[in-house]
Amino acid sequence: MDGIVTEVAVGVKRGSDELLSGSVLSSPNSNMSGMVVTANGNDNKKFKGEDKMDGAPSRVLHIRKLPGEVTETEVIALGLPFGKVTNILMLKGKNQAFLELATEEAAITMVNYYSAVTPHLRNQPIYIQYSNHKELKTDNTLNQRAQAVLQAVTAVQTANTPLSGTTVSESAVTPAQSPVLRIIIDNMYYPVTLDVLHQIFSKFGAVLKIITFTKNNQFQALLQYGDPVNAQQAKLALDGQNIYNACCTLRIDFSKLVNLNVKYNNDKSRDYTRPDLPSGDGQPALDPAIAAAFAKETSLLAVPGALSPLAIPNAAAAAAAAAAGRVGMPGVSAGGNTVLLVSNLNEEMVTPQSLFTLFGVYGDVQRVKILYNKKDSALIQMADGNQSQLAMNHLNGQKMYGKIIRVTLSKHQTVQLPREGLDDQGLTKDFGNSPLHRFKKPGSKNFQNIFPPSATLHLSNIPPSVAEEDLRTLFANTGGTVKAFKFFQRDHKMALLQMATVEEAIQALIDLHNYNLGENHHLRVSFSKSTI
C-alpha cells in the first residue's frame, strides 16, 4: 500500500442496520482476522477499562465516554479512515469500547489525529487512548450483531482498497454514497486556498483530505470526509453559496471516487491524517504543530449568499485566516485591518519603494510610511484586510536587506500623509494610483499565483531579443548567485530563475520587478511554487 492510509467509510451509515441484512452475510469474508462481540457479564470483568493514558502504542485502542445509545457501526467508523478494523468489543455498561486495528501504525496515526481533533459521537466528545491489551480475544458466538457489522464493513473496505501509485483510487460507488465531494469555484475574484476550503467544510465534520487543481481555467477541489453523511450535509448546506461577498460561488457534487490518495502535504494537497507526508517540492514536510493546528475544526456560520467566520483560532492556518477579512454578511464591507506594522527593517537600505514592491506581491499597497523617529519600522496600508493578512502570513520572519523582518497588524486604520508643505524626507509615499498594482483587475490570474517567498522566481513579459545569458547577468548583479534558469517551452516570454537562497530571491524581486528590458517591455517578477 506504499504507506498510504486507506480511507473508506462508504456504505457505513451511522446508526444504520442496513448492513446486517442476510444478503450481506451470505458470503463470509475470509480475510476476517477476528470477530466481534458486545461484551456482557464475564467480559466486563475481563476488560475493566483501566488503561493508562501514557501506555505504549498498541493496535488495540481504548475508547471512553461513549454516549449510551451509540452503535458498533459508529465506533468502527472512527477507525475506518486509518486502516482496516479487525475487531471490536463494546462495554455498554461502562460507556466504553475497545477497537482493534490491523496494524500498530494505523492505530498510532489514529491516536495522533484524534489528539489534535477531538472526536465526537452524537455531539458528545469521546476519548481515545492506547490499550494495555495487544490484541482482542472475543467470543464469536455471543453477539451476532456486532460480528455482522464488522464483517459487512470489512467487505466494503476490502472492495474499495485504492490502487497504489494512483492519485485517486478508481473504485467508484453510486454518487450519493461517496464521502468525496467535487467542488468548483465560479466567479473567483479573490483567491480561494486549500486552507479556506478546510475552514468552511470542517463545519460539517472532520475533513480528512483535500486535493486542489485547475481544470478548464477553473479552480477545483476534491475533498474527502470520513463519513458520506458529512459529505451529504455539506453539499446540502453549501452548494450555491458565495465564499466572499458576491463572488467565489461554490458548486458542489458528489465525486465518483470514494478515496483520495494524497502523496504530498503542501498548498495544493493535504492529508490531515498524515502530517508526516513530504511537501514534494524539496521543502520539509509540514511542522507537526502546524499540521495539528490545520486539523482543528472551527465554527463557520452559513448565511444566505455568504459564509461568515465566527472564529479562526490559530494563526498557523495562515491562508484560512487570510480569508477572514473578506468573508462576511452580504452588504457588509470587508473586515480586517488593512494597515501593517513592519519592524526590524534595515534602516540604511529600506525605502518606501522597496516595501511597495515586496508587499505588492500579496496585495495592492496604497501607502507606505517609514516612521520618522524609528526608521527600522514602517506602516504599510493594503487595499483590504484579506491582502494585509496574506502579506503578514507570507512575509513575517523573512529576510530583507540582511535582517529578519517582523510583520504584525497595526492598530492604525489608515496611514496618514504628511501635511501639505511639510518635508518628511520622502519617508511617506502614496501609491494609490500606481500602475504597478497586481490585483486591480477582478478575476486576474495573479489571484491564483500567490505563493510564499521562494528561491525560484517566475519571470514574465520578456522581449524576444533578451537571451538567457542577459537575464542570468542581470540577476547576478543584484548580489546573489543564479543557480538555474529555464525558459517556458511554449512561451519564451516567461521563465523560471532560481537564486541560491530565498533572501537572494527577495532582493532580486525588489530590485528587478518592473525593470525596463527595452522594446517597451517591463519585467514582471513573482515568487514561484516550482523548482527547476
**If you compute it from the alpha carbons, what radius of gyration comes out, rounded to the nearest whole angstrom?**
27 Å
β-strand number = 26
- Percent helix: 10-25%
Counting DSSP H or I runs of 4 or more residues, the number of helices is: 13
The shape is elongated
| Spatial arrangement of strands, main beta sheet | 11-12-8-10-9-13
Mean pLDDT: 75
Largest sheet: 6 strands, antiparallel
Derived structural class: alpha+beta
Strand content: 15-25%
Summarize the structure.
The protein is built from 13 helices and 26 strands. By secondary structure, the protein is an alpha+beta fold.
Structure description:
Helix 6 packs across helix 9 (318-324), helix 9 (318-324) packs antiparallel against helix 11 and helix 10 (352-359) crosses helix 13 (502-512). The chain is of the alpha+beta class and 532 residues long. The strands form seven sheets. The chain has a six-stranded antiparallel β-sheet with strand order 11-12-8-10-9-13. Strands 1-3-4-2-7 form a five-stranded mixed β-sheet, with helices on one face. A five-stranded antiparallel β-sheet has the order 21-16-18-17-22, covered by helices on one side. The longest helix is centred in the N-terminal third of the chain and has 16 residues, at 144-159. A hairpin with a 2-residue loop joins strand 11 and strand 12 (247-254). The protein contains 13 helices and 26 strands. Helices cover 22% and strands 23% of the residues. The two termini are 30 Å apart.
